[in-house]
Amino acid sequence: MMRWVVNIVLIVVAIGMVFPLFYMLVLSTREYPEQYTTFREILAAPTITSNYIDTWRSDNFLLYFANSFFVAICVTAGNVLFCLFVGYAFARKIFRGKTVLFATILGVLIIPPQVIMIPLYRLMAELGWINTYWALIIPWLVTPFGVFLVRQYIENLPTGIEDAARLDGAGEWYIILRIVMPLARPVLTVLAIYVFLSNWNSFLFPFLFTNDEAHRTLPVGLAFYLGKQSIDWGHLMAGASISALPILILFVVFQKRIIEGLTAGALKE
Fold this sequence. Notes:
269 residues
């Protein structure tokens, strides 16, 4: 009996999570969906594809898409590289203040992003990075969560191969890039997926740091479909559907790796 209850609860939760996506797709394939008053009328309305064509061709949508992809790729590559180095240092090296420094990194995880909006904006302004790719990339090249994730994973790796390499005269760079990095590939893959998803969907800081269309990312560009007097729901939902497509593909392909990576290091043998 308990099993049936759990299954029913999970089904209800799943429907609740999938319904907004389904609703978005329905609205994106209706002409002027704001004219309908009930969901039944929306479902009965004719299906069109012109919203997707118009969105893709209008308002620099392709430029926004390319900007989001470029920024997400750069941030993802930086996190994989720097989190590997920092995580390796915390997992393998002994230095003064290591415990305090790592506790500080963990403490950053509980700080809401809104707290650093003003200080970070002032820093970007003083550096002259407003309306540049630097402001969208540099502050996010390493994340506390990534450092924690990689550190926990490397701590569980056997040290025998590294010790053998040192006896053969290998340096630290060789050990990190040729030994530790291949062994840590599963967690680095998960970190790359997590960072890409987070950065692709980022709205707050790209909205603060960009005022021109040349550097505007896709989430920020979609916000301009929200007018002062009305909202173009059809084209907005079409743009949101296109924006969500890469995320859905990544999640479907790598969902097992995401779950495994989030639990990596949780249990120590």
